[in-house]
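Example: V-type proton ATPase subunit E.
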Amino acid sequence: MATGWSLIIGLIVVVIAAVLAWIFSPKGENQTVFRSTLILSFACCYLMWAITFLAQWHPLITPKRADMRPDRVPE
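Written out as structure tokens, the predicted fold is:
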């Protein structure tokens, strides 16, 4: 079962990947472009995953079953 620690662990993994991208990016004319592309890609992927994870973990709308009669729905 997923917990709140998943977000923190995911963030730590992304920060480590960003630091490694910063350190091991190839030296040369396009070093800044390469670094920023990798780091922004890691950050965007993490944000998309975290938003999707939180949206499934705490949905704004409660799912409803359409095959139940209204008088049988527990409240």
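Residues 4-55 form one domain.
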